[in-house]
Amino acid sequence: MTQPKRWLRLWQPGRHGNSLASAPAAYHRLVILLISILGVLAIGVVLAVIASRSAFPGVEAPVSTQSYPGLPAGPVHAEDVEVVKLDLAFRGYRMDQVDAVLGRLREELAVRDHEIDRLRAEEERHGDV
Fold it and tell me: 3-state SS of the chain: helix, strand, coil percent to 5?
C-alpha cells in the first residue's frame, strides 16, 4: 500500500496541527486580531450611521448643490418662465423641480382664467343694459 502524498497527510483530521486545538498560538492571535478589527469597524459604522441621522447643536444645515431658485413669489409673468433653468438629473431634469414649476403655472393659469371669466361676465352684464 502506498503512502498518501505529503500535502494530503497534512490535512487529514488529527494530523499535524490541522485541528483548532493543535493550532499554533500565532494562529489564535491572528484570528483574535481579525475578529477585533472587524468588531471595531462594525461599531464605527453603526456610530457613523447614528451620527449622520442626528442633529447636533451648532452644526449648520447641509449646503445644496442645486442651482434652481424656483419661480418668484407672486404672479408669474412670461419673462419668469423664460428664465427658469432646471437642474439636470441622471435621466433628464429633476422631477421635483419640474413638478414645482408646473404646479405654480397651473395655479397661476387657473387664477387668470377665473379672472378672465369674471371680466367677460361683467362685460356681458354691462353690455346688455
Answer: 60, 5, 40
Give me 5's grid cell: 502524498
CA distance 62 to 60: 6
Q: Are 90 and 73 in contact (CB under 8 A)?
A: no
Question: What is the pTM for the complete model shown?
Answer: 0.39
Give the pLDDT mean for 13-38. 73
For 90: left if phi > 0, alpha if psi spans -120 to 50, otherwise beta; the answer is alpha
Q: What single-letter amino acid sits at 61?
A: A
pLDDT, one tens digit per residue, over 45-102 is 999 888 877 777 777 776 667 777 777 787 777 777 777 777 877 778 788 888 888 8
Distance CA 50, CA 20 (A): 38
Distant-in-sequence, close-in-space partners of 13: CB < 8 Å, separation ≥ 6: 19
Buried b (16+ CB within 10 A) or exposed e, 25-41: eeeeeeeeeeeeeeeee
What SS3 state is found at 88?
A: strand
